[in-house]
Write a structure and sequence with these properties.
The complex is a heterodimer. Chain A has strands spanning 3-7, 11-12, 18-25, 33-39, 46-52, 56-59, 67-72, 77-82, 91-98, 104-107, 111-115. Chain A is an all-beta fold. Chain B has strands spanning 9-12, 18-23, 34-39, 46-49, 63-68, 71-76, 85-93, 98-101, 105-109. In chain B, the strands form 2 sheets. In chain B, strands 1, 3, 4, 7, 8 and 9 form a 6-stranded mixed sheet that branches. Chain B has a 3-stranded antiparallel sheet with strand order 2-6-5, with no helix packed on it. Chain B is globular. Classes of the chains: A mainly beta, B mainly beta.
């Protein structure tokens, strides 16, 4: 049974860079797309981006200039970096296994990120 | 403002059948299949329906999905109190080159 677990700081200062990691356990890491999705408090879901095969990335155009997703195959982890954080980036951040057309079938529990000085 | 349009709320009594609509465009629902997610309070989303009408293992057959043109629907029959949750539709968007979501529908079981 594949499980995902997000980790990272819960509090980030404005203008700083957010770094989150998602650890994949219990299954194969390769041959899947891995996505990041966020959900501001009381609002809906927003796709941030995904990575496939360690090198192929796709980003939401609205965030593309600030986002980097990378993979560490040796640790079965993929990571999110989001620069120039503002209060609008305050959200629950989820990582998920993504079948693209078939949807995201496994999700992490999510990690809350607050942007505040 | 979400790319896919859902009603913000829906409700029903136990045992009833409720439907939740999702409207999109030719670049998303019109060209690609639709997935539905259930998000219980305080938890991560769960894939409920994929590829328009397929249920992952473990999802009761009370849940069903359909698609026509640029719209899709989720139907829940035999409504139960544990179905009270937020429901999101999603589809790949050929312009965005990524998935887009609806704004979510909060289902209340009266």
């Amino acid at each position: 049974q594949v499980q995902l677990q997000e980790s990272g700081p819960g509090l980030v200062k404005p203008s700083e860079t957010l770094s989150l990691t998602c650890t994949v356990s219990g299954g194969s890491f390769s041959t899947y797309y891995w996505s990041w999705v966020r959900q501001p408090p009381g609002k809906g879901l927003e796709w941030i981006g995904n990575i496939y095969d360690s090198v192929t990335t796709n980003y939401n155009p609205s965030l593309k200039s600030r986002v980097t997703i990378s993979v560490d195959m040796t640790k079965n982890q993929f990571s999110l970096k989001l620069t120039s954080m503002t209060a609008a980036d305050t959200a629950m951040y989820y990582c998920a296994r993504d079948y693209i057309i078939g949807g995201m079938d496994v999700w992490g529990q999510g990690t809350t990120v607050t942007v505040s000085s | 403002q979400s790319v896919l349009t859902q009603p913000p709320s829906a409700s029903g009594t136990p045992g009833q059948r409720v439907t939740i609509s999702c409207s999109g465009s030719t670049s998303n629902i019109g060209s690609n299949s639709v997935n539905w997610y259930q998000q219980l309070p305080g938890t991560a989303p769960k894939l409920l329906i994929y590829s328009n009408n397929q249920r992952p293992s473990g999802v009761p057959d009370r849940f069903s999905g359909s698609k026509s043109g640029t719209s899709a629907s989720l139907a829940i029959s035999g409504l139960q109190s544990e179905d009270e949750a937020d429901y999101y539709c999603a589809a790949w968007d050929d312009s965005l080159l990524g998935p887009v979501f609806g704004g979510g529908t909060q289902l209340t079981v009266l």
